[in-house]
Please model this.
Amino acid sequence: MLVTSANLSKQAWGETINTTREVRVCSYEIGVMVWPELFGDNATMVPTFKSDTPPAAGSPDRTVIGARMPYDLPLVKYAKDDVPWCVTATYSEPDWIGETWND
Model:
C-alpha cells in the first residue's frame, strides 16, 4: 500500500527568492509504503475510513492491519449538486465529526 501525493505547487518545488538564486521551499511531503509482511507472515491489510482500526475479521491466526484511507471505498462519483470544499467558504451544515465552518 502506498498513499502519497504529487504536489506540483511553487510551495513544494521551491521558488527563487533573490538574485543569488536561493530557493525557498515552503511545503514538504513524504510518501510512505507499507505491506502486510512487515507485520508477519500471516498478516493481511484492509482499508479503513475514519478509523485506524479495522473491523474484527479473519481467524485468530491471522493479523489484520488497518490501512487508513482518506476516502471511503468503493469510490463514489460526485453528484451534479455536490460542491467542492473551500477553506475560505462558510458551511453551516456539520461535517462528519460535527464541525461547521463559519467565516
User: Anything to note?
Assistant: The helical segments are 10-13. The chain has a mean pLDDT of 80. The beta strands are 2-3, 15-16, 23-24, 32-33, 43-49, 63-69. The two ends are 37 Å apart (CA to CA).
